[in-house]
Structures are given as C-alpha cells and as structure tokens.
Amino acid sequence: MSDLKGRVALVTGGGRDVGAAIAKLLAERGASVAVNYHSSKTEAEAVVAEIEKAGGKANAYQADISDADVVRKMVAGIKNDFGGLDILVNNAGLVFRKRFSESTPEDWKKQIDTCLYGALNCSHSAGPLLEATGRGRIISIMGDSSRVGESGLALGAAARAGTIALMKSLAREWGRSGVTANSISLGLIETAHDRTWVDANRDKLVKAYAIRRLGLPSDVAPLVALLASDAGSWITGQVISVNGGYSMV
Prior knowledge:
By secondary structure, the chain is α/β, with parallel strands linked by helices. The chain has one domain: 3-Layer(aba) Sandwich (Rossmann fold), CATH 3.40.50.720. The chain is 47% helix and 15% strand. The chain has helices spanning 17-28, 41-53, 68-82, 105-115, 117-133, 145-148, 154-174, 195-206, 217-228; strands at 8-11, 32-37, 58-62, 87-90, 137-143, 180-186, 239-242.
C-alpha cells in the first residue's frame, strides 16, 4: 500500500517503541519520514537504516522539542531536505509515576515542557507547512490517563490533557485549510516500560484490560497511518483510544 506516497512525516520520539513503529509504517505506506530524537541517536539512526533498507526515505533529526527555537530549526531542516511537511506525529513524551503530594514544581516543569510545550512547539512550527499542503495532519499520542485520570500520573495526565485541548482547537482553527488534528490515547504499552517491572506485575496489570494483554507498538501504528491518509480526511478533533478496553468512556 502506498497511500502516503509523496508525503513527508515528522515523528517526534521516533527512535524507539511506539514512535519507531509509527515511523516505519508511515514509510512503508510511502511517506518520507523525519525521525526526531532527543538523546537516542543510535536508535533513531537504526530506524532510518531499516526504512532505507526497505526502500524508503528517512533522516534522523536531533532536537529537544521543549525548546521552540530548536524545533523551528528542525522543521526548517526537514523542509530543506524533503521539500515540505504533511504529517506531524507528536509522540515524544516524558511521564514518571509519583504521588502528586510528593511532586515538586521541578517535576511539573519537566513533564509539561516535554508533553505540552513539545506539542505546542512542533505544531506551531509545522503549522504553516501543514496548511500549505491542503491536507495536513497532526496526530498526538498520549496515555489514557489524560482522559480518565490515574493515581500517580497527575502531572503527565494534566500535560497531555492540555494537548487534547490543543488538538481540538487546531482542528477548528485549521480545518478550513484541510488540516485535521486528532489525539490517540493509549493503554499500557509494555515495551515502553521497564521489562522487569512489567513481567513482575503482568498478571495484575492485564486484569484491568477487557482484552487480557498489554499493548504493543504494532497496535498503535495502523491507526496513525489511517488518520494520516486521505481515508482519515473527515476525522478531526477526536480522541480515539487504543487501550484494549482499559477504559470505555
């Protein structure tokens, strides 16, 4: 399938786990892919190499998405290398579990800077290019805690809930230019967590899911590809859960 042929996608945090699966599937569908990373250069370059080996086009771009100036330079580099930008996947995030009463303003800043300001910075820099295509796509990835709340995840949930509001607002503001903006909220993706902890708690964890298993990156990427394609052109401002039935609200 080559329904994304000729399009250019930026996947933040694209060097590992869910981001890597998204980057590789978008490339398989025909898109040229900008694989963003913060510190995992080796992983990002491995994703690029895998895409190129399969006949696709990709480059790795280092950028701290919490820094607006750095993001602007990255997007300018992508435009220079690929000629434009059609798809933005806000995947990168920073979430750690801690009781809110034990958290500090420094904890709040770290997660808000990455999860909320990261999406703000990337969407703001990418916006003019997405509007210019007449078919721009923004897909933001987050945990289901941003919709239903979860003990110990108040900070990440609050930051990502702000991203949901951003996507809904951009869907209204940029819809007349053909841009869609959606959010995908996830249950627990086992590869994104410490393997020892997941294995030690697996039996207890899976009981929270109607489908008795934890999520995999391959469960997420196909929905991103749909929303990025023409088949998703009338889906916007939505929050779609990929969560194995963890929540059904």
